[in-house]
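re: the backbone from monday

yeah here it is again, tokenized this time
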């Protein structure tokens, strides 16, 4: 992808659209808009990843935070009294570069409280799967939503650790199916996946993961998208109700920049987008402004580790290959939500396990790493209005107000998680695990919902086309717009939804 040629402070004024953020929401919007002939600028605070050996080094990526940015979030969670700073990773392509590639669709019942239906998304899911090169098998998922086409390609055979889980779950009478994955297993014209064990949470050193820089952004650039990495957006300036100018700082030079646009598309993620909107005073301008930053969801995820009497993955092979939806509808009538899903996930390296193990257990944890195998539980969570993004008075290195995140799980969230943990424990035991242990997840990797879409400004921040109520020329197209978190990973839905609302952005006003 071409690098910047002009100083940010000297960009020509007046683009048809400026997009803030290069994750799923930003990249898919960008592609749709440039294909329609619009002149589009994408501003992304992160830089392209290096794609060198260190990108597969667990110590560098998971412990030293190789791509952590300089702007912290102040996060208060799990009953803590005070927030603690966390420095999120940032890079061109957003979290797609680190993600696990699991590409699941929501189910029709998941969107019953959204202002759109599953049918409104279906064609866009198909295109998003195609653009992301998703490999999957139709007809295996017991709760598979309707599909108009089959997947473009099938995933590779199960590796040994995945086979172990498949057999155990099948013995229990459940129906594990192949996780649809956005990974290049088949296209010989570029690097193909070598099934390594440093995928989820890591950039792919050989660019075989179909992250956005390898797929959608590359395509968008060929159609004219201009991308400026290292551009840190502070706020949006308004003329009356109309979003007009995006302001920020060039991270390399420290110079400030201003870019004018007919359309401003905010796609900075469920924590970043509300921060930009609040810094811009949108909560005061918009008729749905009270909803900005509220209803933060993140899934109630957990990892369940089984310790086996044998080495579980001596060849260190990739095995994020299976998913179970058997329990998806088990609490719908009682709690009004899905339960969620159970998925295969890798076991981190010994030094990472030892780092996160409780004091006194570090050496033992490292020694037993090779006998461990994990399952990931992705449980739906409730959108509590006090789970939210606000601004602190503190400023970061760029002079921008730092966001504060407050989040607590409800009893119902923990019930859904523990229900799935119970099922995952049975699978690991059936597969031969002697003991199991649950770990909470404290990242906001599945952050969603902080600018929900809805039918009216009294109940939502955005309309059904992701326009900010009561403003002109302003959309939010990332995971912020979700009304419910559902029980599956969110990226494919963010992508499909961005394609869905693109015609409204093109129409402008
Ligand atoms: C380790 C990991 C594994 C995951 N695995 C999966 C998976 O297997 N399947 C799945 O569906 N989902 C997965 N997810 C979640 C998925 O990656 C996210 O849901 C998705 O990337 C969110 O897309 P987005 O467009 O909302 O935001 P993001 O991907 O967060 O993109 C937002 C972008 O905006 C940029 N930005 C923020 N603030 C500013 C600013 N002020 N100025 C300029 N730029 C800014 C950020 O740097 C970022 O690049 C995973 C996430 C992680 C971290
Ligand atoms: S498993 Fe495949 S796609 Fe993932 S990092 Fe390894 S080579 Fe890349």
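seq for it, each position gets an aa:
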């Amino acid at each position: 992808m071409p690098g910047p040629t002009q100083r940010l402070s000297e960009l020509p004024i007046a683009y048809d659209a400026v997009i803030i953020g290069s994750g799923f929401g930003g990249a898919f919007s960008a592609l749709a808009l440039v294909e329609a002939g619009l002149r589009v600028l994408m501003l992304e605070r992160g830089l392209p990843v290096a794609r060198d050996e260190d990108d597969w080094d667990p110590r560098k990526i998971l412990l030293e935070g190789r791509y952590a940015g300089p702007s912290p979030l102040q996060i208060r969670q799990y009953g803590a009294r005070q927030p603690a700073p966390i420095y999120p990773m940032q890079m061109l392509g957003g979290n797609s570069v680190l993600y696990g590639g699991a590409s699941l669709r929501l189910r029709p019942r998941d969107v019953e409280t959204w202002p759109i239906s599953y049918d409104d998304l279906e064609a866009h899911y198909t295109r998003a799967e195609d653009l992301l090169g998703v490999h999957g098998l139709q007809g295996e998922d017991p709760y598979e939503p309707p599909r108009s086409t089959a997947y473009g390609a099938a995933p590779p055979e199960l590796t040994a650790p995945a086979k172990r889980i498949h057999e155990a779950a099948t013995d229990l009478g459940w129906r594990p199916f192949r996780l649809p994955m956005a990974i290049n297993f088949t296209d010989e014209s570029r690097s193909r996946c070598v099934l390594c064990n440093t995928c989820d949470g890591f950039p792919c050193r050989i660019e075989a993961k179909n992250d956005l820089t390898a797929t959608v952004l590359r395509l968008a650039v060929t159609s004219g998208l201009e991308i400026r990495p290292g551009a840190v957006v502070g706020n949006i300036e308004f003329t009356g109700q109309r979003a007009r100018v995006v302001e920020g700082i060039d991270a390399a030079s420290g110079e400030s920049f201003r870019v004018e646009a007919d359309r401003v598309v905010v796609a900075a993620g469920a924590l970043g987008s509300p921060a930009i909107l609040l810094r811009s005073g949108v909560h005061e301008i918009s008729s749905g402004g009270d909803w900005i930053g509220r209803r933060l969801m993140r899934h109630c995820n957990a990892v369940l580790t089984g310790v086996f009497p044998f080495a579980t993955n001596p060849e260190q092979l990739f095995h994020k290959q299976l998913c179970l939806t058997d329990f998806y509808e088990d609490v719908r009538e009682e709690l009004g939500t899905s339960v969620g899903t159970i998925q295969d996930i890798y076991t981190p390296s010994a030094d990472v396990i030892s780092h996160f193990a409780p004091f006194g257990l570090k050496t033992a944890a490292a020694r037993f790493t090779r006998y461990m195998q994990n399952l990931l539980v992705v449980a739906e969570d409730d959108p509590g209005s006090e789970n939210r993004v606000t601004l602190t008075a503190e400023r970061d290195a760029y002079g921008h107000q730092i966001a504060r995140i407050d989040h607590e799980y409800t009893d119902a969230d923990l019930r859904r998680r523990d229900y799935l943990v119970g099922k995952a424990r049975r699978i690991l035991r059936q597969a031969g695990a002697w003991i199991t242990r649950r770990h909470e997840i404290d990242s906001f990797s599945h952050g969603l919902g902080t600018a929900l879409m809805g039918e009216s400004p009294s109940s939502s921040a955005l309309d059904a086309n992701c326009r900010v109520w009561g403003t002109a020329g302003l959309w939010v197209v990332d995971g912020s717009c979700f009304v419910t978190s559902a029980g599956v990973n969110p990226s494919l839905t963010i992508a499909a939804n961005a394609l869905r609302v693109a015609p409204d952005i093109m129409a402008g006003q």
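The domain at 12-507 is CATH 3.50.50.60 (FAD/NAD(P)-binding domain). Residues 20-26, 43-46, 90, 94-96, 98-102, 200-201, 232-233, 267-270, 272, 276, 445-446, 478-479, 489-492, 494 surround flavin-adenine dinucleotide (ligand 1) (CB under 6 Å).
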